[in-house]
Amino acid sequence: MGTDNTQATGKPGTKRPFRIWRGDENGGELRDYTVEVNEGEVVLDVIHRLQATDAPDLACRWNCKAGKCGSCSMEINGKPRLSCMTRMSTFEEGETVTVTPLRTFPVIRDLVTDVSFNYEKARETPAFAPPADVAPGDYRMQQVDVERSQEFRKCIECFLCQNVCHVIRDHEENKQAFSGPRFFIRAAELDMHPLDAKTDRKEYAQSEMGLGFCNITKCCTEVCPEHIKITDNGIIPMKERVVDRRYDPLVWLGSKIFRRGQVPQTSVTSGHSGGAVTAPAAHGGVHSHAGGSHDTAAERQAQQGVNWHREVPHPTAPAVDVNGKLPLTELTFDRAAAPSPFGDDVTFPLPPEHLNFAHPQQDEPKH
Amino acid sequence: MTETRIERHHYDVVVIGAGGAGLRAAIEARLAGKKTAIISKSLFGKAHTVMAEGGAAAAMGNVNSRDNWQVHFRDTMRGGKFLNNFRMAELHAKESPQRIWELETYGALFDRTKDGKISQRNFGGHEYPRLAHVGDRTGLELIRTLQQKIVSLQQEDKREFGDYEARIRVFSETTITELLLDNDRVAGAFGYYRESGEFILFEAPAVVLATGGVGRSYKVTSNSWEYTGDGHALALRAGATLINMEFLQFHPTGMVWPPSVKGILVTESVRGDGGVLKNSEGKRFMFDYVPDVFRKQYADNEAEADRWYKDPDNNRRPPELLPRDEVARAINSEVKAGRGTPAGGVFLDIASRLPAEEIRRRLPSMYHQFKELADVDITKEPMEVGPTCHYVMGGVEVDPDSGAAYGTVRGLFAAGEVSGGMHGSNRLGGNSLSDLLVFGKRAGGHAASYADQLTARPAVSVAAVEAAVETALAPLQRDTGESPYTLQQDLQAVMGDLVGIIRREGELVDALARLAELRERVAKVSAAGGRRYNPGWHLALDLRNMLVVSECTAKAALERQESRGGHTREDHPAMDPKWRRVNLVCSLDGDTVRLTHKPLPKMRPELISLFDRAELAKYLTDEELAEFDALTEGER
To answer: Which cofactor does it need (chain A) (predicted)?
Structure first.
């Protein structure tokens, strides 16, 4: 009969320092632990060992422990990660591993956060509309056509993309009007579904889900454990095609004046909204994800409606590396915490004139 | 007990479990117009169903048009070594194509054939390509599709009643600890919110159990923490019965090292594509374990085995491709003989067999999974694998058509892994996902009509609720007992070592004695901390369920003196036709597990006639064969 559950195989375990956030909605603190770590373990293994030894009531979500269910999302040394997929061998021996709950969602206890925001947004996203005249069993689709949607259906709903999205990460007030990357790809998935009978997925995403808030910093793509190209394959095509389909004559005129890609991202339901204006981003600008231009006069003008003849200030691009990616991956970033998505030089709250996006419903009459 | 706050809800149907079976049952109950609650132990959409990779078996005949329900039925009965409840196997084979097609109307996107139909893949034990699949994430597709269907029903209700939750509501991170009865009728369910630790009481005349399996009682398992046999135990305590509890499926090749991937499955295709099993001495040992009945189909030397991959028509198969139970037993024997790896497994080597490029092309997800989860490069080094507890064939004994639990209770239904009978002594890969859909729908529908035909609602008694509260709070109020984590480890050691893949009478007797000891210790378990999201407390409450279900397994394993499918007795190595006619039924008598024999239902003539006499001769008693002969005589 086996005597021990944690078999001693390979090298004996070493004691490693951990700092784990303990607390609830009333506040908490980072607490230090020294835990045994064995060869080949991941952060979740270490948390389980802590539960079995020093901290039996340490709260943490997990299920499959194989990167398939998306339950064990947390921030490890400031980076949003699945703890079952973060190997201890990626840290230096002796390096303190700091584990904190997802920042975008309210804490329930310790590493467990209230992610109900995501389930509310899921409920608001219109469901698949089956074609009326096709009987079950008669669905015919080509593999090449389902593959585009299948990429998005790989989503394990770990909500790391939601957590890292700067539109809501430190902006509780945006949560109501913004569904987040997870649900943009849900909309994209349905939009690309060969047999979905609903034809206004993109317009809906723009007018009701807050697609216009997104200014494509690609943080969501960076953290996706399923490697879904959320921005490139989901959000950007949605944005482009919203523009393609524009029927509003004013916008049509605009599309004649502006080159593609420069067309104002306005909501379908309000043709003259002062939306965020995307222009080709100047590469290598100041590191500020929000893209606030700090030109208050121009920003104020931008707020007042579309001025077709105005050269709108270019949003500043994030500082990207040679591969065109953000320095957010654990290996390349230069400090032990995630960067502020708004740039490290920005203080909060952000003055409204520094925001370069417009609320999709700002022009609708107040009820 | 005076100060306890309990949130009360009224529903027509309460579905416990939010995996494939639970969600499908809930959809059906809601479509029947019933007010339905779904209880999910974790977050909505995280259920263990997401782990299923291979696919969902359904005889749609998209890839090979000769496939039909009769062939699927035959395969299922064969796989289960004829111990299956034939009616369940029949319903399953007949109805699974509709259940799969229905998923497409909910938005599922399966991989396609060239002519645009649902593609189907080959799998062990299935005569024709039969598994509808989405790459290797079919389970995720299934759960997400059902989850999104529920959302769409909620959207309909919002339009009609102004409230998403008017007729169907998901209680996520909620655990049910007790079913409440009014005499022999289900009256409700009692549990707690994991987040807050607050109690919740559902008053409902019909309950569907869809809680999955029991793998957490084993040391090496591919199952998640939720798999603590809650539904099995709730059913027992409510007066229902369990069958086939001795049958557990151990997948032969689960990772045993490194710890980060312990228990995770290495798909059979690794062996199908050329992977070989070696012991610590570097010997390809499977040639020593080919049973006589398989000698004709399996090679006895490496040269022939290796030729098979290129020329399967003129060579016999490599012994690595023997059925799951044979491979698992062989690995187990090597390890017990001291020729295992340090972590207690053997080596599965594909690195030295195929070029790295080829491995990455053929097994992309295996390659990525181990690279990312464990930093193991399967193109460079062998994997360390061993048998991992994967699935429990046994479960709640149910009426095949309605999913209603047998025993003394009424208003209780079960579907999916928690129910027993469908898979007999061994489940075929791919039959699980279709099982969830077929019997989930049936259980949900019948629970709804049961609720309809009741004239009066059963009432929940105050005393029962008070008792449930007391039981739930007890571990928090004690500080003298042992840690639940220690107790779980000890339970896993007993089950893994003594009631594992190979069983012996002496060890099983020993296991029962140890389980009795553990029962005393579990009764005194104490959990530190408070009620808010306290995993220690949650485990302390789950332990009680794991323990009683483990007792059922150990008792039934001791009783069944033969080897069949997921039950291997070293002291009774052969299959015995007499035992095929027997189901072992567990019930609870006070606190003790009682075991009785019950005859298996007899297959209908038109179903048994689907088989060859030669095949039946391997399974049936002489008496049964004579009956079969008389039957076929009559036909001629």
So the answer is: [3Fe-4S] cluster; [4Fe-4S] cluster; [2Fe-2S] cluster
